[in-house]
Amino acid sequence: MPSKYIFGYGSLIQIESRTRTVPSAFAASPAIARGITRGWYYQSPGAGLSPTYLGAVDSRNATTNGVIYGVTDSEFEATKLREADYDPKMIDRSDITMLDGSPAPPDGEIWYFASKTRQTADAAHPIVQSYVDICVDGCLEIEAMYPLAKKASFAAQFIRTCTDWKTPWINDRIYPWRPFIYVPRASQIDALLRKELGDELFSKISLP
């Protein structure tokens, strides 16, 4: 059994995204972590244009859903390199509720990657749809695999528990008039975003 686990709350929810760093992590268990809040407030340091990504920080009364998967020491180090601008922080096992039918989280250290700063979207650092798609698509994958996660509306819960949804928000999907070719769940993602965030914000998503 692994001695370390990662709680992924953003792009690491999606199979394709997390297995680029940890190829063995095809399987991951849905879970809810208490004491963590997640939002659109991570910006990569340095000059130049780049998106605003998801970040997370400790917050006593908040909850955040995500996935837990085991890693070796070398895989943990590889993930730390991928998330080099974040701080790895350990989560108390008592703050984890599993959504895979397990009565308790796996034995071992459970880590998440916390934001060092909080800067919300602006003109130079918009929210970008391609990254939103990765995260919500990962949640829809989880719903398809785990009945308890689907019952808990895992994807909608992801949207609701992310803070700082705002403009500028750029629709950078390839060929946006036919997005299903490149984002097969595009219509589901858009329907969820519209339902959870409202028509006013959804209508302000702009093309690049």
Question: What is the gist of this entry?
Answer:
The chain has 7 helices and 9 strands; from the N terminus they run βαββαββββαααββαα. The protein is of the alpha/beta class.
Find the CATH topology: Hypothetical upf0131 protein ytfp
Individual helix count: 7
Given the C-alpha coordinates, what overall shape results?
A: globular
Count of domain modules: 1
Give the termini distance in whole angstroms.
46 Å
| Main sheet attributes: strand count, strand direction, barrel closure | 7 strands, mixed
Report low-confidence residues grouped into runs of 5 or more. Answer: none
CATH superfamily: Gamma-glutamyl cyclotransferase-like
Question: How many distinct beta strands?
Answer: 9
Strand content: 25-35%
Average pLDDT rating: 93
> Could you state the order of secondary-structure elements as H and E?
EHEEHEEEEHHHEEHH
Based on CA atoms alone, the radius of gyration comes out at 16 Å
Classify the helix fraction into a percent range. 25-40%
Secondary structural class: alpha/beta
CATH class category label: Alpha Beta
| CATH architecture assignment | Roll
Q: What can you tell me about this protein's structure?
A:
Strands 1, 2, 3, 4, 5, 6 and 8 form a 7-stranded mixed sheet that branches. The protein is globular. Helix 5 (about 155-160) packs across helix 6 (about 185-195). A hairpin with an 8-residue loop joins strand 2 and strand 3. Helices cover about 30% and strands about 30% of the residues. The longest helix is centred in the middle third of the chain and has 17 residues, at about 130-145. The chain has helices at about 15-20, 75-80, 130-145, 145-150, 155-160, 185-195, 200, and strands spanning about 5-10, 30-45, 50-70, 85-90, 95-100, 110-115, 125-130, 160-165, 170.
